[in-house]
Design brief:
Elements: H1 3-9, E1 20-24, H2 30-37, H3 40-43, H4 54-62, E2 69-76, E3 79-87, E4 94-99, H5 109-124, E5 129-135, H6 139-147, E6 151-155, E7 159-165, H7 166-177
Antiparallel strand pairs: 1-2, 2-3, 3-4, 5-7, 6-7
Protein name: N-acetyltransferase domain-containing protein
GO molecular function: acyltransferase activity, transferring groups other than amino-acyl groups
Organism: Salinimicrobium marinum
Length: 178
Amino acid sequence: MKTKDIFIERLQELEAPEGFAWELINKSHAPVVVKWRNDPAILSFMEMDNKLKLEDQIAFLENYCLYDRVDIILFSKNKPVGVFNIKNLDSQPEYGAIIGEAEYRGKGLGTKVKLLIFKYWFCTLNKETIYSRNKKLNEKIIKSNISWGFEKFGEDEDLVLLKLEKDDFINVSLKKFN
């Protein structure tokens, strides 16, 4: 069974922060994801920093089953507040996150979510490695990821690739945040 199928099948085991809930992405989320993705405060940190069109997001979601990735929407009550994903699940799994609603940014929610997703990834799904690809100008996230135990794995002119092993997550991140 592919990692995507297992991830989705066991999604109910992914803990959400208190007061929040998860939902697997679907076409109904397209407008809000486009809004978040095109927010200048977010767009500048995206690897693909072109504006996303609604019709492109809908086409992506219509063919979602073809992609080796899982995207989940975080809800507070009935309001979507962010989207989180792991892509390249069966090759070089890469974590991505957008706290889309500005009033939820800078309050530690991203840290809580990352901890819960990584616990699910490493401890529930028993995976060994996860990567993060960040624009060099996103120094805050790069520094944060290194503090979690990520190690620099590569870079090019614009991006830094970081790698987190399961043992480093358990020995650094779980101790740091629990």
